[in-house]
Amino acid sequence: MSNIVINIDGKEVHTKEGEYLLNAARANDIFIPAICYLTRCSPTLACRICLVEADGKQVYACNAKAKDGMNITTTTENIEKERRAIMEVYDVNHPLQCGVCDQSGECELQNYTLEIGVDSQNYAVKDVDRSSHDWGHLHYDPGLCIVCERCVTACKDMIGDNSLKTIARGADALNVEYKENMPKDAYAMWNKLNKSVIGLTNGTDVLDCTSCGECAAVCPVGALVDTHFMYKSNAWELKQVPATCGHCSAGCQISYDVKHTSIENPEEKIYRVMNEWNYVSLCGAGRYGFDYQNSNVEKDEAAFEKAVEAFKTADTIKFTSTITNEEALILEKLKEKFGYKLVNDEAKAFQTFLHNYSDISGTRLYGSDLKEMMDSNFIVSVGTAIKTDNPNARYSLNNSLTVNKGAALYFHPVKDPIIDNLGKNILSINHKPLQEEAVLYLILDLFADKDKLPSKVVKYLSSFHSKKKITVTETIKEKVIEKVKEMKLNEETGKEEEVEIEKTKMVPKKVSKEIEVDDNKLISMLNMPDNFNETLEKFLKKKDSFSLIVGPDLYNHPNSKNIARLVALIEKYSEFKLIMIPTLTNTLGVSLINELSEEEGKYAVGYNTKADFTLSALGDGDLDMPAINQQEGTLTSINKRVNPTNQAIGYGGYTLNDIANALGLEAQNTIDYTKELPTSKGFLSQSFDDLPNYYTNAGEEMRGYEIKNMGRRVSSDESVSKINESLALENDIIYLANPVRQFTDFTNKTTNLDEVSGIYMSEEFLSNSELNEGDSLKIKNENGEMVANIISDNKIAGDIVIIPTFDSKLNSEALVNGYRFATASIEKV
Ligand code: SF4
Ligand code: SF4
Ligand code: FES
């Protein structure tokens, strides 16, 4: 899109050719009323209030595109009449229950009614019964619904579940006189509104979705609300604490909305989580999994002394990546002072992967981010159960498919109906575990510039190709001579006579013939559909921006070094922009800040993981620590941003900084370390209090800062090894992954997330076996064993058994040897 200049209400506005006028206006702080449009989604024209005049013609600002030199007027007499009528219509039959409505105080219906000055009503229609629906974590009141369809749009264009739609209201028709007499856009909008309410696409009254709550967040009125928040608080009583979600590496912007617990109890409590939904979409864990704080902790001096002693005795600190950058830096400083081994297996695997990748790429970090992925139109995903590893990556994938008319290939061994339902332009290839190298070679083969790729790789790729003969049927035109009888004048007799003549005509004929075609063994190796080449050709039409997203299956793969190098070759020699999913919340931060060891020593202090002495924000250790929602600090996200987070809930105990101070470090607060984060790794020397935390009206993310992607010396060695075809897993395969909305023991601790701990199996798998939901199973292999009950999960398919990590008591990680897939015996107990 080229840069252009348009004029809005006399103001010169710089924008891009083809940008929606509404977005161009917003980016320049010009207000145009708009209700149904959601930034990042397709316009639906449900509200029509965004009418403007562009070059003398009335258009909808949310779907009219900017052209160079365009002149826009945001209000005219006619537009004002339309807007006034639209708001009157929205107020028809809207119950006067603002006093008890959850949205009161932040309701767009209230705001626009006042803004446009609706003080009388010219329209009426008989109301119909519109009773409320209990949709589990959501409550829908059609009586309050203005049918703006924002919920439908968010679910379809952002989230990808497509669980909501408009259904018939069964109302009386509008009085015909309105059609003649009222402003025409207001009438058209009302006519549609009066016929609809919101229902579920599955045709039932049971909402079965990934339960993100985004639809309720975008609802402008009190029609769709989170059940947990219903009648709990007025919006204006809540204090918004700007924060970063602590559950996965997406690092979503959130605000914890807090107020006192009750009249008797002044202690602050989180009542809900909100987000800047125009620019960021949350998953259900971010939205509902907020009460994971370590509550009622007081300073336990004796436990603190023991902790200090434990640090003095220890030679190892074990920790998880659910800590802030500042805490990671404290651990690093303690390591430098006392020579500890810092052990964090998951971050170590990611760190090593990044290191191996950068040997070829020459950069410390992957080059792209989720924003760029969302803007691209051809995406390939490899080595990640994307839906649960990083829900925002799935949203970006879906948004590219729906809004950019994109296409995607999803390579993963676990069949995922949620991914398949994202649309017909995504192809899932459920290859076998341990075939990820073959997938990456296939991507190189299909997309890399062979003139630039190392010649050995080109040669190896060509070894997969051969010619094969196939029989194809084609239709040819064949010449046939037909004898037909015709009447002809006999010149001698002067009479018409029947004569037989020959006529030539071309008729279609199906013939089979043998042709020679390219046979790519990589395609058959990965069990891909026979028509893959045709599908790909169709997918690639009009595609010009490519993203590759890779994930945690690769970091502990037995050939992860080679895989990291292959990934780097793809980024270097093809058009793909690369994103890696860091495994946990702050895996990227930890992998940049800490020098990690592989082996534990003799005595370990654990932070959020069991050890000889355990510090725990879960409240189950030897000394309590604050959880992420009780801390100030920063977290490094998949988008390589250092995002600030603030304390939502009070904490009365000791922190890691207190221990560090007792051991000789000196910092008044943990956030004193923010400006000391290592600049050699791309962090900036900025104090916590100077970090911004907002989005601009143009949607630019101004949260913290982006880490500099520092260059590294590029090795001239670009060699990669061949696919190890001997690696294979036999029957009864288990996979270490979580159900939607669960990530760690912290999400498991929260009250609104109802996914329970157990062994997750697809409905399909259970119906083909003797096993039933609730049965107790023992899963065992040479690495370990676990016993838990079966949970039937309709959000996976196929026969791979999912063992979750969000409940560390299950000890599921003991069953795998790094790589997330393993073979195990599964028996009923
Ligand atoms: S439930 Fe809310 S978001 Fe959905 S159509 Fe009704 S008013 Fe709009
Ligand atoms: S909760 Fe999320 S997935 Fe479910 S209907 Fe709402 S937007 Fe869609
Ligand atoms: S915002 Fe443009 S039609 Fe609703």
Summarize the SSE layout with pairings:
Elements: E1 3-8, E2 11-16, H1 21-27, E3 51-54, E4 57-60, E5 71-73, H2 77-91, H3 108-115, E6 133-135, E7 138-140, H4 150-159, E8 164-168, H5 176-181, H6 184-193, E9 196-200, H7 214-218, E10 224-226, E11 239-244, E12 253-260, E13 268-274, H8 284-288, H9 301-313, E14 316-319, H10 325-338, E15 341-343, H11 345-361, H12 370-375, E16 378-382, H13 386-389, H14 391-403, E17 407-411, H15 417-420, E18 426-429, H16 436-447, H17 455-462, E19 465-490, E20 495-520, H18 521-525, H19 532-539, E21 546-550, H20 560-573, E22 576-580, H21 587-593, E23 604-607, E24 613-616, E25 623-624, E26 633-636, E27 641-645, H22 656-662, E28 693-695, E29 701-703, E30 705-706, E31 733-736, H23 745-749, E32 759-762, H24 763-767, E33 776-781, E34 784-793, E35 801-803, E36 821-823, E37 825-828
Helix pairs in contact: 2-6, 4-14, 11-20, 11-21, 16-20
Brief summary:
With 829 residues, the protein is of the alpha/beta class.
Based on the model shown, name its key terms.
829 residues; alpha/beta; five-stranded parallel beta sheet; 24 helices; binds iron/sulfur cluster; binds FE2/S2 (inorganic) cluster
Describe the protein's architecture and organization:
- With 829 residues, the protein is α/β, with parallel strands linked by helices.
- Helices cover 25% and strands 25% of the residues.
- It is built from 24 helices and 37 strands.
- The chain has a 5-stranded mixed beta sheet with strand order 2-1-5-3-4, with helices on both faces.
- Strand 33 and strand 34 form a beta hairpin.
- It is globular, with a radius of gyration of 31 Å.
- The two termini are 62 Å apart.
- The model has no long low-confidence stretch (mean pLDDT 96).
- The structure holds iron/sulfur cluster (2 copies) and FE2/S2 (inorganic) cluster.
- Residues 154-155, 159, 161, 163-164, 209-215 line the site of one iron/sulfur cluster.
